[in-house]
Amino acid sequence: MSILLALDASSSACSAALLRRRPDAADELISRFALTPREHTRRLLPMVDEVLADAGVRPAELDAIAYGHGPGSFTGLRIASGAAQGLAYGLDRPLIGVSTLAALALGAHRRHGFRCLVTALDARMGEVYVAAWDCAQGLPAPQLDEAVVAPERLRLPAGHDGQAWVGVGSGWNLLSQMSAEVQAGVDQSLPEMEAAAADMALLAMPTLEEGRGLPAHLAQPVYLRNEVAWKKMNAGEVK
Predict the structure, then answer these.
(1) Mean predicted confidence (pLDDT) in 79-100
(2) How far apart are CA 175 and CA 168, in angstroms?
(3) DSSP H stretches of helix in the chain
(4) C-alpha torsion angle, residues 21, 106, 143, 5 (rounded to 10)
């Protein structure tokens, strides 16, 4: 049996989830999710306590801690990585960072059945964080590497067996700034969807089962825009 805790604060949403996988039974997934802008520090650890209590799991029984490593809100990523590292250090458990863009893709696939997804988050400064995925095998397989680009420079991957692309994430609020090719190539968009720890738990479990978690001190947020992010942090401008 494997038990994994996941947490996320990469966007305006805050979430925690516990995934228990047994060899002879269906997965048990317990989660909490709330839109809590500017309240992540106050809400995240209580959510962790709630999912542990609901599952009847003591912290010492956890096999690994997963967290949304980005891209996303610089402040939120630091909150989530700090909380995850603290738990991992205290429990001497491995950490597993999960892409927020991949979690968005899995969430849209699980909830709506979409297969080919372009996930995009508003990166501010006139740019979007973006990646593309194919969920034909259940979990999202990358079709376009994660990058930060201006909306007008976004290009869709080549066609996928006639499957329409679906846009997911806040970056699609900037659809009007994207090229005519992108606007025509995306069948529909879900800009209101947020990444969730429940999907991160499902993405992290194969890594745990393969023994590929990292020591806590090696885990780092993924900003995709490191130089700009650090300049802003040093100037105290991160929001």
Answers:
(1) 96
(2) 11
(3) 40-55, 74-91, 100-112, 180-185, 197-209, 226-235
(4) -50
- Separation CA 48–CA 113 (nearest Å): 28
Retrieve residue 48's tokens: 């962790």
- Angstrom distance (rounded) from CA 200 to CA 47: 15
Q: What is the pLDDT of residue 141?
A: 97
Q: Max alpha carbon distance in the chain (Å)?
A: 53
170 φ/ψ angles, rounded to the nearest 5 degrees: -65, -20
Q: Say how far apart CA 19 and CA 8 lie, in whole Å.
A: 14
pLDDT band at 159; cut points 50, 70, 90: low
Q: In what order do the strands lie in the sheet with 64-70?
A: 28-35, 13-21, 2-8, 64-70, 95-99
Residues 6+ apart with CB under 8 A from 180: none
H or E segment and range at residue 28: strand 28-35
Tokens read off for 194: 């947020």
Q: How far is CA 154 from CA 22, 114, 172, 183, in A?
A: 42, 21, 11, 10
Half-sphere exposure of 123 (CA within 13 A, CB side): 26
What is each CA distance from 174 to 29, 125, 234, in whole angstroms?
33, 12, 29
Question: Strand 186-190's sheet: what is its strand order?
Answer: 141-149, 127-134, 116-124, 165-168, 186-190
To the nearest 10°, the Cα dihedral for 136, 140, 143, 147? 160
Query: Alpha-carbon distance 156 to 153, whole Å?
Result: 10
pTM score above 0.85? yes
